[in-house]
Amino acid sequence: MNVAEKKLIRNPRTGSDGKSRSPGKRAATPAAKSSTAKSSTAKRSGKPSSKSSTGRPSAGKPSAESSTSAKPSAKPSAKPSAKPSANDSANDSALIHQTLDRLIDDLKSNIVSAASGGDSFDSAERATVRSVLQIGLQALQLFVALQGNGDLGAEVETADGKRLVRSECPRSTTLRSIFGTHDFRQFTYSPGKKRAIAMRPVSARMSLPEVRWSFLLQEFSQMLGVDQAWEQATTNLGQIFGGRFSVDTAERINGRMGTSAGEFLRDLPQPDPASEAKLLVASADCKGVPLVKEDSPRIAAFETAKKNPGNRRMATVSSVYSVDPHVRTPEEITAALFRDERDPKAEAADRQRPKPKNKNTTAHFPEQSDDGQGKAISISGIHVAMAWIMGQINLRRRAGQVLVVLMDGQVSLWETLKLHLNFGADSAGAGCVARAELRLEGGEPVRNIGCETKSLYA
């Protein structure tokens, strides 16, 4: 960050000399002589104020900051064109302060009125949510207005020595938050006219994302999209926060996040050994992943051609976590397996069940790798998953810690795992294998739990 940007962060309304950033005095107009900020803004823009009676910006209208920016004169003039000054930002901030105070007062009076009028809790709750969303919108509008217009001077020099030139006039920027849409104007900097923008000072100061949705809105959209179709997820998002949300935008955000998934999973931090539980558990399972219509005919569902491809491709989901033992009787396990009704004491005990700690989960498709002779070889997704599991085990397993492997009866999973772990060894070897059976008191085995348990000791 250069010196000029640091000065802007300290005081976005003034330049390094403490004076207004406006390059010249604004021509005297009736708006400048107005006694109120509201009428001043309306007269400078030539249009009514863009703020509605509810405090939300009117749809399709420019923001208050955009209405105050003077347009370049059509006639040639020796004087530079007028730019938004610090006074404009101050007027905008004052208007938002007034709107914010009014909305808070309205919320308090509405609650008192609802209580005295005998309204239901549900109606009061819904009205409160609407008011809170309006207050949140104005609070963020104030935050944006206080950033200034990003004017760092006619030219700036970046840390790597590049010279950037300020745009002739502020440019519009739009951001969508969970509260609504925020439109503001800021100066931009580029190497020259008709060159790509290299710096947006206000956006950089607020650490805005590259897309128009705020980071929190992106996070909420992805949380809903994990278990729902995108159209349903965005519909639910609109039900919660109001307005409409684009399905295409939510899908693009998901794609952008996915490009960083591999790097994120490769650099998972090692959990604090003190936070790990007594048992270390590894698990793997194969799951079908739906494919888009264009890919389903040309990609086999399995790594061999023995089954119909269908519209899915198999991924190996692997997971490693630690957990403390949970001691239960065979009857309690049977009740849990077959969803028997349990008494209150059993329900209370179930709430005390140990929770998994430091759980990491990944999914793996087959991968292409170099065979060392310039040719590509295909590596099974199961082999990739087991290699990841072993990396986690080697990183996290403490000396003497019991390792539990939980998988279903798929032969390829167990055969691949045996390439990494020694099953059936004696006490002098790497460990031992035990097949768990569930028995009721005095009876025959009820069922074989389709998993194997392996204990490893350093």
Outline the structure in words.
The protein is α+β, with helices and mostly antiparallel strands. The protein has helices spanning 3-10, 37-45, 64-68, 86-116, 121-145, 201-205, 215-225, 230-241, 247-259, 261-266, 330-337, 344-351, 381-396, 411-417; strands at residues 155-157, 163-166, 171-176, 181-186, 189-190, 279-290, 312-323, 357-364, 367-370, 376-379, 402-406, 431-439, 445-456. The chain has a 4-stranded mixed β-sheet, covered by helices on one side. Strands 1-2-5 form a 3-stranded antiparallel β-sheet, with no helix packed on it. It contains 14 helices and 13 strands. The longest helix is centred in the N-terminal third of the chain and has 31 residues, at 86-116.
What attributes does this structure have?
about 450 residues, alpha+beta, 4-stranded mixed beta sheet, 3-stranded antiparallel beta sheet, 13 strands, extended, disordered N terminus, disordered C terminus
- According to DSSP, the number of beta strands is 13
Largest sheet: 4 strands, mixed
End-to-end distance? 51 Å
Rounded average pLDDT: 75
Order of helices and strands, N to C? HHHHHEEEEEHHHHHEEHHEEEHEHEE
Please compute the radius of gyration using only Cα atoms: 32 Å
Low-confidence stretches: 1-81, 425-458
Tell the overall outline: extended
Could you say which structural class the secondary elements and strand pairing correspond to?
Answer: alpha+beta
Number of helices: 14
Percent helix, as a range, is 25-40%
Order of strands in the sheet with most strands: 8-7-6-11
Q: Strand percentage, roughly?
A: 15-25%
